[in-house]
């Protein structure tokens, strides 16, 4: 479904991503793990068009994403829950969800999608008129996920959904990711929390200083001694 | 008491013009963090377009007003497209944008000097109503028109920004342009639309100004624009109600200074207020505290 081939990305003179290739198949959860600064966020931002690539290929169902401006990409069925959530803090919960459906025109169906999100996240329904900046961290993450789902994506890119959340909330968010995937949405997940990321994923890639150093079945990677030492703290 | 009431109303009338212009500064700043110094000159452009359409082309007033509003909206979009967009999309430093804005301002002033000459042109009477008497109070019709029109514009703008799809996209873009793009919002369109609305409001301000002070000069945008900018900062730049409030406060302060202190001191008082507000509340009266992202 999503294919990244020999991607290179630079920030000025700094070559941040070296020949990264990865693939996400329909229905999968694929995790991209790695330390801070490994290039996980840069990879996602390049896929969604927020960052320009120096060279390489990114395709979604065969369509070239690199030639496309970011606002067009959402319409193809690829949604991105960015790092740090980036909800619209001064807009209400309901307005944030509406923005998520910006590419969709049919009002009644959008309203139905909003109800679906409220069904999945009852806490958002309770707070729908509240300004999003007043939500707790966990609620904001739920809103960011709900907002991304409003575009009815085929594939959801999630960047550090566990960041800044308590262990209990991290569990809740990962349960939600599992549910979203079970409802038919393919997921590409970027996480520093390697243990959680590997436990939920089908397959995973390990990034180190901008290069893919390992890839494979998530369960196998979890048993790998190098991964254990470097990322699982055991 | 009568003098006080009259001067206050006059001040609100003048403040309405400042407010309409201040909205443009504030909206543009809110969305692209640019102090668009060419905004003041849009008032001048709006004034000359009205004059041209009314006198030279002999069109009726309502057509001249609509023509001026449309022309200014288009001018705002063109200025954004030609002068600012490349800088904005390539992350140019703010100082480059600011200097570009000053350049656009100088360009517009000289262009209009070239076309219309540098001396003042008088504008024929636009809205002719007799003054309105409430008790012993005489209120000039222009004062009432200014206040009513500015309040209507404010309500319209409030509805646009809070209820319409484009307005919500504007708010989303001003908060986080990157996140807005991830939602599928074409931020280039949103920014262009903001310039169009801001410039259209300035054109309305220009019509009111010409009706109140029937004179045009190519450099009139300098002081008028600067004062409206002060109003925007006073109210809290980026805040729409703040721009309105700042405009009214400034107008009233100017009017009171004229009648109770000295008309020579009005500008000193206006900029004095700015200094005091910046010292006491740097974000303006209704401004939010901005957290800088590290």
TrEMBL record, chain A:
Record-linked Pfam families: ABC_tran
Gene3D superfamilies named in the record: P-loop containing nucleotide triphosphate hydrolases
Family, as annotated: Belongs to the ABC transporter superfamily.
GO biological process, one term: L-amino acid transport
GO terms assigned for molecular function: ATP binding; ATP hydrolysis activity; branched-chain amino acid transmembrane transporter activity
Every ABC transporter domain range: 2-234
Protein name: Branched-chain amino acid transport system ATP-binding protein
Organism for this UniProt entry: Harryflintia acetispora
Alphabetically ordered keywords of this record: Amino-acid transport, ATP-binding, Nucleotide-binding, Transport
Automatic annotation (TrEMBL), chain B:
Superkingdom of origin organism: Bacteria
UniProt GO cellular component terms: plasma membrane
Transmembrane spans: 12-32, 37-55, 61-83, 95-116, 136-161, 191-209, 229-253, 265-284
UniProt-listed GO biological process terms: D-alanine transmembrane transport; L-alanine transport; L-isoleucine import across plasma membrane
Keyword Cell membrane attributed: yes
Gene Ontology terms, MF aspect: L-isoleucine transmembrane transporter activity; L-leucine transmembrane transporter activity; L-phenylalanine transmembrane transporter activity; L-valine transmembrane transporter activity
Keywords from the UniProt entry: Amino-acid transport, Cell inner membrane, Cell membrane, Membrane, Transmembrane, Transmembrane helix, Transport
Pfam families for the chain: BPD_transp_2 (PF02653)
Family statement: Belongs to the binding-protein-dependent transport system permease family. LivHM subfamily.
Name of the protein: Branched-chain amino acid transport system permease protein
């Amino acid at each position: 479904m999503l294919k990244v081939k020999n991607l290179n990305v630079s920030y000025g003179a700094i070559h941040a991503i070296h020949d990264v290739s990865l693939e996400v198949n329909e229905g999968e959860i694929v995790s991209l793990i790695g330390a801070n600064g490994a290039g996980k966020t840069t990879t996602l931002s390049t896929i969604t068009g927020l960052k320009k690539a120096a060279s390489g290929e990114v395709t979604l169902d065969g369509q070239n994403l690199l030639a496309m401006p970011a606002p067009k990409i959402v319409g193809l069925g690829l949604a991105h829950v960015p790092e740090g959530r980036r909800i619209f803090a001064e807009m209400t919960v309901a307005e944030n969800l509406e923005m998520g459906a910006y590419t969709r025109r049919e009002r009644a169906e959008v309203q139905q999608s909003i109800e679906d999100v409220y069904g999945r996240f009852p806490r958002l329904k309770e707070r729908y008129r509240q300004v999003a900046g007043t939500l707790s961290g966990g609620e904001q993450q739920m809103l960011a996920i709900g907002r991304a789902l409003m575009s009815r994506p085929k594939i959801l890119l999630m960047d550090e959904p566990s960041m800044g959340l308590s262990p209990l909330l991290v569990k809740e968010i990962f349960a939600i990711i599992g549910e979203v995937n079970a409802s038919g949405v393919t997921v590409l997940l970027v996480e520093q929390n390697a243990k959680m990321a590997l436990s939920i994923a089908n397959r995973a890639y390990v990034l180190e200083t901008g290069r893919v150093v390992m890839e494979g079945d998530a369960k196998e990677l979890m048993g790998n001694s190098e991964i254990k030492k470097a990322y699982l703290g055991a | 008491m009568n003098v006080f009431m009259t001067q206050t109303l006059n001040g609100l009338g003048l403040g309405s013009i400042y407010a309409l212009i201040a909205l443009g500064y504030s909206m543009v700043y809110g969305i692209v963090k640019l102090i668009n110094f060419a905004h003041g000159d849009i008032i001048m452009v709006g004034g000359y377009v009205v004059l041209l359409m009314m006198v030279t082309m002999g069109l009726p007033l309502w057509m001249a007003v609509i023509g001026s509003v449309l022309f200014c909206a288009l001018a705002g979009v063109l200025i954004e497209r030609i002068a600012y967009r490349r800088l904005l999309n390539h992350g140019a430093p703010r100082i480059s944008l600011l200097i570009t804005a000053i350049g656009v301002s100088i360009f517009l002033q000289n262009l209009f000097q070239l076309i219309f000459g540098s001396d003042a042109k008088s504008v024929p009477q636009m809205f002719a109503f007799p003054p309105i008497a409430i008790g012993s109070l005489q209120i000039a019709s222009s004062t009432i028109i200014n206040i009513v029109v500015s309040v209507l514009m404010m309500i319209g703008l409030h509805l646009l920004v809070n209820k319409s799809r484009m307005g919500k996209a504007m708010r989303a873009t001003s908060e986080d342009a990157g996140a807005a793009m991830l939602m599928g919002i074409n931020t280039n369109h949103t920014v262009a639309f903001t310039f169009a609305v801001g410039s259209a409001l300035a054109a309305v301000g220009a019509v009111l100004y010409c009706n109140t002070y029937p004179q045009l000069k190519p450099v009139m945008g300098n002081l008028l624009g600067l004062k409206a900018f002060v109003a925007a900062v006073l109210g809290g730049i980026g805040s729409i109600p703040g721009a309105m409030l700042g405009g009214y406060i400034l107008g009233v302060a100017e009017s009171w200074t004229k009648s109770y202190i000295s008309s020579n001191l009005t500008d000193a008082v206006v900029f004095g207020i700015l200094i005091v507000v910046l010292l006491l509340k740097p974000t303006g009266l209704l401004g939010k505290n901005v957290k800088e992202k590290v």
